[in-house]
Amino acid sequence: MNQNPRNRLLSATELDGFAAELDAVRARTIATLGQRDADYIRGIVKAVRYTEIGGRVLLFASLPMAFAGLFWATWIAGVLMLALSKILENMELGHNVIHGQYDWMNDPHLNGKTYEWDIAGTSASWRKTHNFQHHTYTNVRGMDDDIGYGLLRIFPEQRWRPFFLLQPFIAVVFALLFEWGVAIQDLKLGRWWAGKTSNAQMRKAFKPVGKKMLRQVLKDYVVFPLLAGPFFLAVLAGNVVANLLRNLWTFTIIFCGHFTADAETFPKESIRNESRGHWYQRQLRGSSNLAGGRLLNVMSGNLSHQIEHHFYPDIPANRYAEMAPEVKAICARYGQHYNTGSLPRQFGQVIWRILRHAWPSRPPRVSAAFQAQAG
Amino acid sequence: MNALVQPPIQRPRNRLKRLVQPLVVPQVFDFWASKVNRIWSWDRPLARITARKGESADAVTLWLQPNRHWEGFQPGQHLNVSAQIDGVRVTRSYSLTHASTTDGRLAITVKGVEGGKLSRYLCERARIGDVLEIGQAFGEMTLPPSPQGNWLFLAAGSGITPLLSMTRALAAQGMPVPLTLVYWAKTRDELCFVDELKKLASDHANFSVHFALTRETAVGDEATGRLSEALVQTLVDDLSSRQVFACGPGGFVDTARALLSSTAKSFHAEAFSPPPRAVEDSGNVQVVLAASGRTLTLPRGKSLLTALEAEGFKPASGCRMGICNTCACGKSSGVTRHLHTGELFHEPASALKLCISSASTDLVLDL
To answer: Looking at the DSSP assignment, which residues form a beta bridge with residue B106?
Structure first.
């Protein structure tokens, strides 16, 4: 275990105090939820709708604009606007709504259990792999599938196989096709391949997944291009590129959340009889923030506040920025490292991990400290 | 009626809509449709407030123009009305107070309840032109297609609203059957529709109305006192031939049932109760699982998830600590306690986390 020396060892009493203070931040925020938050998320819905229609109209208009010599300018603007729409929808709207962050509004259109987002993966499988597995067992090896998504070796604690030598290349393909990777994550194709899942079980599990995939393919790569008639190819290509851009961006943000240099993983034993304070501490040690401004907050679905998100996954994400200074101060008071840095710095560390751990590597000498606390 | 009652079940859509359905994302459709007309929606019944009229010191009648998803109603039925208040969509049930109108408009009469979120909002803040979300009409206490015999309506407080709707419907048919209405309120100020009811009584020989006050001295032909055998005997003749409809708070309806269900020819009642004030933390509650049609007795003070599992009912669940939202389900009535904060939640909710909530009163869950 790569126990970070910057984290002070906390006694059970201190851990309880740590939890109580973090719970108090939560209670204070929940008490003030209201019109402002409802207006915020409806504003995001509005931005998603207008940028989507704007992007699609620009793509449709790119060929006629060619007569004015503006094909590329219009097409690129259309692609960027559509990618922006999809990024906002997936991150600030979909991801946060599916967490149930806005359930208190009782708005059936913003309900975490029924919201379906504009991405290849179903909301249903996301609720399981992300809301439950990833958020409950964050960075616990063997329980949080998000550690390398079963495809990449990010931490030295993962067993090395020669296959991982290819991972610098695989990581690029995975980033480009990220939405498809997320879509099939819960199918656990590896188990099926190894014969542990029967064909019949796989067919049953694939049915809703395949249906959602087909819907997305038909929408972006058949219906909208056909609607454009003679401009079929321009629209098809535009939609492909917009989806790729969204994939690259979401990959970048999500990998920065848990795979930076100081992010830690944990053994299964660490969650046995875990106290609330210990749970908070594990979330903190496994997560990293991105220091940026309001633009980065919105564009990352406020995953720039990954730590706050993991502490309070069901609190509206538009509140994380306000909560961050308090959270940071509490962490400082308890001598706990609050992992944050600029996007280039954090992503640089992620790239380094992908490159480094493609090769055999060994965890630093095991410190008994974390285990001692876990017990 | 202004407590929240179980929402009605959605009926299937028409064939053309079912065909187009896979291509339409309702929230995207609603977003753009509402830009054209605020009550247009893919599948949600919505209504615009077209008029408002004060009825008494603290009651107002709102006239609503519904969209095409509204499927009509019978006099005596109720509907759920929702409005957004401080960012939260609040829903309550109200009775429809007018018989069917030719232009398809509906009316609800809302009494501003002390501390009542939606009733206060509708009485004080809702304006003409505002859009409310509505549910389909529901309720079993309706008139037969061709009424026969001798009728008696007993109303207390807001219980007047469904009975008024039926009285108006009968009056519109020329009052084909003899009808007596007895209407209780605490004080004279709280009586609604007095002039209209008196006029109906003078227009129709078949119809008589009596007003009774429980906390103010009677004047003229008013009666004093709560519902009792003696009072009913003095106001209503020929009790044994009467078909009785009673509507009011739980206690009123219970008394009416005890007095009349065996003596009258027939007896139908609907009760509403204000939210309970005192909340206990020990003992058991009745939890209705609406979707599976079961009722379980569960202990208070224990998480609903573990309590349900102990009864052999296994809802979907995940983290068991209130973060993953897997066990969240709708709650249409009852009070729950948040196990971490100790806070009480009286409001109906679309997502109640079973793992960190315990029952404080009887509940209705969408499980």
So the answer is: B64
Residue type, A121: G
Binary contact (A313, B340; C-beta < 8 A): no
CATH class belonging to B150-272? alpha beta
CA neighbor of A84 nearest in space, from A301, A289, A294, A258: A301
Q: If we measure between CA atoms, which residue out of A307, A330, A306 comes closest to residue A10?
A: A330
Is a pLDDT exceeding 90 seen at residue A3? Answer: no
The answer to whether the CB atoms of A49 and B30 lie below 8 A apart is no
Is a pLDDT exceeding 60 seen at residue A173? yes
Report CA Rg, chain B.
22
Chain A contact for B45 (CB, 8 A cutoff): no
Is A16 in CB contact (< 8 Å) with chain B?
A: no
Tens digit of each residue's pLDDT (9 = 90 or more) over B20-39: 777 788 899 999 999 999 99
CB atoms within 10 A of CB A369: 14
- Report the alpha-carbon distance of residue A215 to residue A233 in Å, rounded: 19
Q: In this structure, are residues A119 and A125 in contact, taking their beta carbons and an 8 Å threshold?
A: no
Domain ranges (residues) in chain A: 12-374
Contact B75, B60 (CB under 8 A): no
- Separation CA A169–CA B49 (nearest Å): 61
Rounded mean pLDDT, A157-169 = 95
pLDDT in tens, A118-149: 999 999 999 999 999 999 999 999 999 899 88
**Could you report the per-residue pLDDT of A194-242, keeping only the tens digit for each?**
999 999 999 999 999 999 999 999 999 999 999 998 999 999 999 999 9
Query: B284-365: which CATH topology?
Result: Ubiquitin-like (UB roll) (3.10.20)
Sheet bearing B150-156, strands edge to edge? B223-224, B207-213, B179-185, B150-156, B242-249, B266-272
In angstroms, what separates the C-alpha of A34 from chain B's closest C-alpha?
Answer: 5
Amino acid at B331: K
CATH topology for B15-134?
Elongation Factor Tu (Ef-tu); domain 3 (2.40.30)
pLDDT tens column, B102-120:
788 999 999 888 888 899 9
Contact B325 A45 (CB under 8 A): no
State how far the Cα of A194 lies from the Cα of A150, in Å rounded to an integer: 14
Res A1 pLDDT > 70:
no
- Which of A73-82, A273-282, B284-293 is predicted least confidently? B284-293
Residue A368 has pLDDT above 80, yes or no: no
Return the axis-axis angle of helices B26-36 and A35-66, rounded to nearest 10°: 90
> What are the E-state strand segments in A197-346?
289-290, 340-341
Rounded to two decimals, the pTM is: 0.88
Split at pLDDT 50, 70, 90, the class of A365 is low
Residue B270 CA to residue B95 CA, distance in Å, equals 11
Q: What is the CA radius of gyration of chain A?
A: 22
Checking if the pLDDT of A306 tops 70, the result is yes
Q: Domain ranges for chain B, please list them.
A: 15-134, 150-272, 284-365
Are the beta carbons of B267 and B290 closer than 8 angstroms?
A: no
Taking CB atoms and an 8 Å limit, are B349 and A106 in contact across chains?
A: yes
**Quick check: B40 and B34 in contact, CB under 8 A?**
yes
Cβ neighbours for A112, distance < 8 A, ≥ 6 positions apart: A97, A98, A99, A100, A101, A102, A103, A127, B325, B328, B351
Can you spell out the DSSP letters for B36-47?
Answer: H-TT--SS--EE
Cα–Cα distance for residue pair B100/B123, rounded to 1 Å: 23
Q: How far is A105 from chain B (nearest CA, A)?
A: 4
What does the alpha-carbon distance between residue A86 and residue A81 come to, in Å, rounded to a whole number?
9
